[in-house]
Amino acid sequence: MNRPDANDADVIVVGAGPAGSCAAIAAARAGRRVILIERGPFPGSKNMYGGVVYPRILDELVPRWWETAPVQRWVVRRSTMILSETGALSVDYRSNAWGQPPYNGATAYRPDFDEWLSRQAVAAGAQLVTSTTVTGLLRDASGRVVGVRTDRPDGDLTASVVIACDGVNSFLAKEAGLYSATDPSNFTLGVKETLALPKHVIDERFGVRDDQGVDIEILGGTSGVNGGGFVYTNLDTIALGVVLKLPKLAAQKKRPEEIIATLKAHPAIAPLIEGAEVKEYSAHVIPEAGYSMMPTMVTDGMVVAGDAAALCLAAGIWLEGVNFAMASGMCAGEAAAAAVARNDVSAKGLAPYTDKLNATFVLRDHKKLRKVPGLVLSDRVQQRYPAFVTSVVERVFRVDNPQPKPGLRRIVRQERKRAGIKLSELIRDGWTGLRGFG
Amino acid sequence: MTAIDRDTNWPEISFEERIGTAEFRIHERAHIVVDGDTCRGCSTRECVVACPANLFVPTSDGGILFNYENCFECGTCYLVCNKEGAISWSYPEGGFGIVFHRT
Amino acid sequence: MTVVACLKWVIPRVDDDDRFAGISAADQSALEFALLSARPGEDVVAVSAGPLGAERALRDAVACGLSRAIRIDLDPRASSSAVASSIASAVAGARLVWCGDYSLDRGTGSMPGFLAARLGIGQALGLIDVTIGDDSMSVVRRLDGARREIMRVTGPAVLSVEGSTARLRRASLRGVLAADNAIIDVIAGMSSPIDAVDEKPYRPRARALAAPSGTSALDRVRSLTDAGTATQRSETVVLDPPEAAARIVGALRDWGYLG
Ligand SMILES: Cc1cc2nc3c(=O)[nH]c(=O)nc-3n(C[C@H](O)[C@H](O)[C@H](O)COP(=O)(O)OP(=O)(O)OC[C@H]3O[C@@H](n4cnc5c(N)ncnc54)[C@H](O)[C@@H]3O)c2cc1C
Ligand code: SF4
Ligand code: SF4
Questions:
Q1: Could you give the domains of chain C?
Q2: Contacting partners of chain C (3+ CB pairs under 8 A)
Q3: pLDDT score recorded for residue A179
């Protein structure tokens, strides 16, 4: 056994995204010496996403986070659109309560949000090193992970535990043998345009004011490539993009930016973005297959969190990952700190991490939503039952983590009963709706 | 497929302008290297349509011209490419490469 | 004795934000030359006149192996003259003072000249090549009209270098970790008798051309623009690398890109 106090740190966290910063906060709070390594010039510089974070989990890590977090707008309207070639069906839910403390979802730019979150880690006592790429793992004779190698001269660092939060491509999790194989059909490509418009124009077009924001998830509208789209409002820009299943994208002829252009031209979308200028074009990959692609989470001396562990939910109307990354990072940081304190950083000593994940919304949501897209689709056609649908949608969309999401089946059953709708009617109308719009 | 009722009213931009909206801090070392010989035998060319930065350009003599500079470091190319050894993929040196601003 | 590197913290106009700020390639070259030209036992000091954000650049410089870093607290809009006065008072007695040839934002390139005057030492500005010897340096200066001036530097001097002259070394990981706790001396800036009141964006200078030939206006336009003539400016050749290189240089010379 090597001497833990001879290490450069107790815990090394690789990647200062939401998972890494939360892991660093949790481990530093527990009194451990933490080094947080990021390859970008500042945290968030390499990170893009659709545009909405659900920071409920931060209640535990950064009390009153909403007072300092760099938020663009608070989401008070959430809608789901199903696009056929020229038609659109949307379900729109609005709750002004979401626009007040303690809030629900917020639009934010990742270079802002991630940088802010990393400052919370530094405030908690972690040391942040930027512009430094981790290129591999250091292991002892038994194969246990004992540190990382970076691309700087004199660049090896040792630690009792390495937490890999290095995102979707996680070369560290692969190097540690935690993934069996990489299957492209588990991934989607997200491409996005940040479109500039004056604030008052956005307010008018989306029916909001002040710092109220809108979140639109789109099913269809991706030129026949499996995937979906999104439109989110920032203060003076709109985030518009598509997520595209990789093998499907690669097997046809239309390029990602052309698929975006087609979506922008859709009659239901075009009026929203008329006259807007492209401020920034960006792209990133999403681990999309959720539960079925998850790696082994723990090995001797190392745990994996966030996208690196495929803890991302990109099924139909959900496009969430930042919340899962923050929560899994927190669990990883706590488990690593406890393992160091107990002086057992073997896979067994780190196993409480997996238990924590199982006990929280992180894995419960993933297990529950394993087969969700079919259900979602049938749900969407229930527009004829506004009371029913809004209550279902309000409950489905309310993000209560760390509370696990209630099962969709259960919500539907409860709300259907409450709205006094017969199951046979529901099925018949659902079928009709599907044929009409599908 | 029926044509979409195009009702667009915003400036069309070229791909060069599009990619010009992103900031790339370019390092002299290429972080991705594409092996032209392997590509010559590839008929499917997944990378050409999928790379969001449009960095894989087929040449008239059947090869692939690749430039690493304006790369999002997304990983799409190595995920979709089905030819072993065609793409050597790594991240650029720390501090270099794509820098997002408002996304 | 000390060797000094002057680093200017430049915040971009579009995204007015410290995250996107930094020092220019020219200043990075200056820092590298400061590190390279210091003799054993000499201190290497980096100075930046600017706001708090500039300390990040100084910390990065410390990580590369400096002895000391000084921030002069000065408004980013302070004139070159005020910057020079402030730096001069902080680095009096330095043997060599390295600067970038001009800064990215204002870009008048006058600060190094002012600085040499305030320090009362020599100056060699706008350098495109530097060879460091044991007790002197040979430097090449860019002059107008593609001419070059080669100079020997022996005594104390201010030297300003172009961005392509050197590549800044990569700081070691230990250096970066230690620099986090490095102490940066902060001193107050000085005012100056000359203040910049305005700055204008860069415009390329007008170039004198011979009058175009041709009798009709159309002919003259044609001869100015090459319109309608088939230009032969691309060809594919297969050659060995040395021959190919010679061929490219020859073509560039024919086309007027090389002197
Ligand atoms: C198009 C798209 C839309 C999305 N929309 C949403 C949304 O609206 N809401 C939502 O909640 N989620 C969304 N997601 C998912 C979300 O972005 C991710 O789940 C989340 O970012 C995961 O966080 P993370 O910390 O695990 O990884 P990342 O955010 O990817 O962070 C990983 C960090 O590690 C660094 N890194 C990687 N490798 C190394 C290395 N070798 N050395 C040093 N540093 C390294 C990276 O630079 C990065 O900072 C979306 C994703 C995409 C792509
Ligand atoms: S990179 Fe891969 S997919 Fe692209 S041409 Fe080469 S072999 Fe084919
Ligand atoms: S990493 Fe992404 S942007 Fe870069 S070359 Fe590959 S597919 Fe293109």
A1: 2-188 (3.40.50.620), 204-259 (no CATH)
A2: A, B
A3: 93
